[in-house]
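Final report, results section. Input specification for complex C-07:
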Amino acid sequence: MSKCKICNDSVMTVIPFGRMPIANGFLNQISSDEYFYELIAGFCPKCLMVQLEKTVAPEMMFNDNYHFISSTSAAMSQHFSEMAEEIYQTVSSKESPFVVELGCNDGIMLKHLVSKKINHVGIEPSKNVAELARKNGVNVLENFFNQDTAAEITDNYGHADIISGANVMCHIENLNSVFEGVCTLLKEDGMLLFQDPYLLDIIKQSSFDQIYDEHVYYFSGLSVSELAKRHNMQLVDMVHQDVHGGSMRFYLKKGNSNEVSESVSEYLSQERALNLHIIDGYKKFKNNVDKICYELKNSLMDIKKAGKRIVGYGATSKSTTLLNYAKIGTDLIDYISDNTPTKINKFTPGVHIPIRSHDIFLDDNHIYTLLLAWNHKREIINKETDYRKRGGKFITYFPEVVIE
Ligand code: TMP
Ligand code: ZN
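Structure output:
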């Protein structure tokens, strides 16, 4: 039994996925020395945090070879432009506003504040991604965020009005240290806002592929509220976001006497209604996950038996969990189409499916496409009208297998 990374109590296992490769560990060539670790999702009944029971060293995941570039999707670009506008509206009336973004990636959000001349720092540990942010004019500190980094930024720039992070908090194992850093860096009336895939969406859709090495935590309002209290902060608002298959933007302030939006108590009661405060809610989740894997694999095998070909769409990080847990490999999928230049002609982690450019997909006469980037379904289906006119079908699998 492992110990909770937040409160040190004992964690109860939710799903043991077994041996997994690094989700973003795309290979230049198939090799026998690929790194594997044990992927286990667990739940802490004391502080209510869902988390990985064993974690991978950050250097194994966020290195110079990191392939997750935010700006590959038009919808995500739009989303982050709106997030930047929200931040701008919050800080623009302040005297010399200062914004810090944790995990600024290629600058997809901060570049909008650059053009509005807002004083900012973006923190990004992956060198290749940090370079892209610099090209977007973003002031980047190439490091991991912790108390030391927080003190360094405070010394150099002063305290922050806003600290934001999108798809980054859930990546950081030592979250207590991040929160201590946030408390150091944030102004007394400042706001921490962060968004990550939302546990309630994962449970409702059974979208277990969100569980992989980079996502150490799966936040609910219940667990974030507990975490905030631990650091003398308060969860003051929750706003749902449609990105990444369902995310939640959490708003936190210092102290315990802030005005709290009604949406907090609404989401917390929805979470309790699904038993996310006790282990029972997670037992049902595991059964649903295994059912989906079984049905998806059977559907793919039936298509192959009928002599048809299947390709994948979107070599996403999360598809590593799906493909490896359900054991879907090159016997079922010919290749995966992806528009990220650095992924093309590589092989997916573990099951070693080749990745090909979108041009190859467009010229291909296959009929079935496993939509691995299911969170971008609307954008992709709109874009692939020709494929659908030619009789092409997409296979999706959350909350159940659908071929349409
Ligand atoms: P993400 O869901 O983690 O953002 O990853 C999406 C992946 O899918 C990324 O590798 C880019 C790829 N992708 C395409 O190949 N075509 C598309 O139209 C979209 C939206 C994404
Ligand atoms: Zn705990």
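Residues 72-73, 314-317, 338-340, 343, 373, 375-376, 379-380, 383 surround thymidine-5'-phosphate (ligand 1) (CB under 6 Å). Residues 280-305 form the longest helix (26 residues). This concludes the modelling results for the funded period.
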